[in-house]
Structure formats: C-alpha cells, structure tokens
Amino acid sequence: MSVSVTQHKQFIGGEWVESSSGETMEVLNPATGDVIAEVPRSTAEDVERAVDAAKKAWEEWRFKTPKDRMELLLRLADLIDEHAEELARLESLNVGKPWGVASDEPGAISDNLRFFAGAARNLEGKSAGEYVEGYTSMIRREPLGVVAGICPWNYPLYMAGWKMGPALAAGNVQILKPAEQTPLTLLRFMELAQEVIPAGVLQVVTGDGVPAGDALVRHPDIRLVSLTGDTATGKLIAKNAADTVKRLHLELGGKAPMVVLDDADPATVAEAIKVGGYFNSGQDCTASSRILVDKAIYDDVLSETVKAVEGMSVGDPATDDDLDMGPVISAEQQERVLGFLERATDAKASIVTGGGAHGDRGFFVKPTVVTDVAQDAEIVQDEVFGPVVTVQPYASDDEAIAMANDVRYGLAASVFSENVGRALKVAARLDFGTVWVNEHLFPLASEMPHGGFKESGYGKDMSIYSMEEYTRIKHVAVKLAE
Ligand code: NAD
C-alpha cells in the first residue's frame, strides 16, 4: 500500500515559507519506516529572517498588557483542546507513541498554557521605595527579547508547549525549532494558531541541529536558548553560546534510579517499573532505567518485574489503541539501544527478558530487563533512552543512596517503601531535581518545577520558577524633587 507524503513549509514572519536553499528533509513513521512528510531543511539565512521578524514583533509585543498576553495563551490552549484528538493521532504517527501515551498529552499542554496565562498577570518586581535619601528605586521584571526554544523528539509538541508558555507570558517573542525527526505536530499547531498569533511573535524553523539550531545558538540578537535534548548537545550549545554571553536553559539527559527499600511490595514495584521504565518506549529523560533493590526482596522484585514486562503488548500504534509500547524513534536509535545491550552482554551482564529487535519492520526494541551489571558499567552510567532497565541489588540504605547518586545525571529519582519516614529520609539524600515516593514518572503538575541537577542541566520548566528563566530584573532609580 502506498503511503501519502504530506508537504510542509516553515512559519516565519507570519508566513509559510520554503527553506532559502529549497532543500527539504524527510519525516518517517517509526512504526513502519515509511516516509510520511517532507519539511524544509532550514538554513542560517532562514534563522536570520526569523530573527528580523521577531525583533520587529517584539517592539509591540513587549508592551502588551499582561491581560493581552493571557488572552493569547488562553486562545492557544483552547485550540489545542479543540484539536486534541487530531494532534494526538499525528504525534502517535510521527513518534510511534501508543494511544494511551499520545492521547494524554494535549490536555497536559493546554493546562500548562493556561497556567502561564495566569502567571502573565502575576509577574512582579519585588520592591519599590526610598533606599537612598532623595531617590525612589523600583524593580522592573522585564522580558528578555527574542528567545529560542530547541526541542527534542520524544515529546515534540509537549516540550514546545513547555517553552512557549513562559516565553510568551513574560512578553518575549520566540523562535522554536522542533527536532528533525518530529516537526509535524508543532507545524500543525502553528497552522491552527496562525490567525491569532501576531506576525513574528511565535515562529517555527524546521531543520537540523546544524545549521538551523546552531544559527539560533550563535545569533547575537537571541537572548536565551532553551534546549531540551541530550547532555552532549547541551555541553556543545553552552560552548557555542558563550561568544554572545547568551542565557541558557538546559533540560538534558537523565538516568533515574528507582530505590526499592526492603519493606516495599514487589508486585506494586513491578507495575511501577512497567510504566516508569517503558512509557514512550523508555524514551523519557526521567525513565526509571536503574532499579536498585534491597537484596532481601531482590528475587521477588525481579521475578514480578519480568512477569509484568513479558505481559506488555508491543506493536504499531496505528493498528491498536491498547498497546503498552510502540517503536523507538529511528533506525539510529534502535541501533544505539541494541549496541548498549551487546556491549553489556560482552561485559557479562545477563539479559533476563527481551534483548533484541522486535518484528521485521519499523524500529522496535523488545522491552528488556538486564541484571548482573557493575555500578561502573556503561549501561548503568549512560543514558540508553530505550526500553531497557537494569536491576541491581544493594545491601543497605546507605549503599542504595550512594549507588543512586553515582551517575553524572541528576534529573529524577524515586523511592519505594511502606514507611514514609524512611522514604523521606532517602528522598532528602537523593541528588535529583524530582523525587517521587511510591510512584515513578507521574505526577507532573503545571504548578511544580521540572528540571535537573548536575549534568542534567539547569533552569526549570513549568511552575512560576520557569518565569525566572524568561525574565530579567532592572533597577530604575528616580531622583525626587528637592
Ligand atoms: P538531541 O540533543 O539530539 O536534539 C535535541 C535538539 O537539539 C534537536 O532539535 C536538535 O536538532 C538540536 N541540536 C542538535 N545539535 C545542535 C547544535 N549543535 N546546536 C543547536 N541545536 C542542536 O536530543 P534528542 O535526541 O532529540 O532528545 C533526546 C534527549 O533529550 C535525551 O537525552 C533526553 O534525556 C533529553 N530530554 C530531556 C528532557 C528534560 O526535561 N531534561 C526532556 C525530554 C528529553
């Protein structure tokens, strides 16, 4: 059966335009490997056009009232809700997300935009008064100007939403770049929103990390880059942004431990691993990829986990709305994940279940559980970003905390215990930006910050804290009449 290939343009200066080079790039359905769309391959010249349009737009947008900014964000949220099913189906097709994963996202995105619609009206400077005799000082909280958001492929529209909410609420204008693999939902959202977004206030360039993303990072008139992506990309961007002393917000990789204390219920833990480790095919920066279990219940937790994982349904989300797991994003990602497993096996790890490609088309990896891994093994230390969890025993709570913290990442972690006092004691010692107790992955709430420590980056998404990233503080001092 032939698959229809849709053609797209990028949204610059309120218009739909081709790349200045005329080049396009292909977008695939990862469940089949078929080409489903072509989008412009942006150039540095395209970025320049977008920055020019953004600078013009900012002159007006920066002086809009909080009420005006709120109204735009509320309208954008309504558009997402009105087209929720369409956007979720498109995300499912482009990322290979099971319906259960994709269908939850539009509601979370619109809720986030509504939170920032409210936040737009609550921004304040902290003090105004006479701190030096004869002068009144005030503190203004201002937008930065033109900001850029560079998005990953695992939650394409979701991460774009996390960036556009605080950026627009604070009075910035923004240029977004979706990941090259997954531009479709953001482009569709812009089609839906084009009538309500003033030209140049929110723009989308589609293209590769280099040159398109790189041109955003190096542009002297862009005041902030917010990246959600790999830690290696974050490090590179930090270097490249240094020449223009650009502010950065970096939401990078993770290697989340799930610490299971000896009084936890093995069946409950196994159900949590099924979600925490394999949601979105494990392509989640907060995925519970390292399960640390007290040796007293290690065998029970492992056997319950293997049972839960072997019961998961895997397939093409287009054919079944009840699947637990779809493919990984690309052939490269599939190869990368399988490479981790091969090297782990070479180092004497045991693959208890899974451990290879699934099916004969698309980019699937079987949900996999790995044991007999050393703490310094690559598969324990590095982000696999696929449906793979390792399970390690430990002998004491102190050892569990040491193992949990012994990675370069610090995004998220969880603790499982029937004793809330013990769980809280462990939570306080875990070096991660989010710690869940008796849960992993959820809940996320628009009011609560999300962001990492250590090499997982800095700055926060969601919550009022993210407004700090997108605003600057100015002191205005006024000489009073004698
Ligand atoms: P990636 O780093 O490969 O790409 C992310 C984005 O950066 C893409 O849009 C890409 O085009 C762009 N990019 C690449 N090189 C660039 C450069 N030199 N200059 C400017 N832009 C460049 O990441 P990915 O593979 O799309 O996403 C997966 C990664 O994202 C994982 O490591 C995951 O942990 C992380 N992630 C983190 C969070 C979080 O909240 N911390 C959330 C989701 C994903």
Portion in strands: 15-25%
Main beta-sheet annotation: 7 strands, mixed
The low-confidence runs, each spanning 5 or more residues with pLDDT under 50, are: none
Shape: globular
Describe, in plain words, how this protein is organized in 3D.
The chain has 482 residues and is α/β, with parallel strands linked by helices. 38% of the residues lie in helices and 22% in strands. It is built from 16 helices and 23 strands. The chain has helices at residues 44-61, 66-82, 84-95, 99-102, 105-120, 156-169, 184-193, 209-218, 231-241, 266-278, 298-310, 331-346, 378-381, 397-405, 420-429, 466-469; strands at 6-7, 10-12, 15-17, 24-28, 35-40, 128-132, 135-143, 146-150, 173-177, 202-204, 222-228, 247-251, 257-260, 290-294, 350-353, 368-371, 388-394, 409-410, 412-416, 434-437, 453-454, 457-458, 471-479. Strands 15-16-17-14-13-19-20 form a 7-stranded mixed beta sheet, with helices on both faces. The protein has a 6-stranded mixed beta sheet with strand order 10-9-8-11-12-22, sandwiched between helices. A 3-stranded mixed beta sheet has the order 1-5-4, with no helix packed on it. The protein is globular. The N and C termini lie far apart (84 Å). It binds nicotinamide-adenine-dinucleotide. The site of nicotinamide-adenine-dinucleotide (NAD) has 33 residues, from helix 8, strand 11 and helix 9.
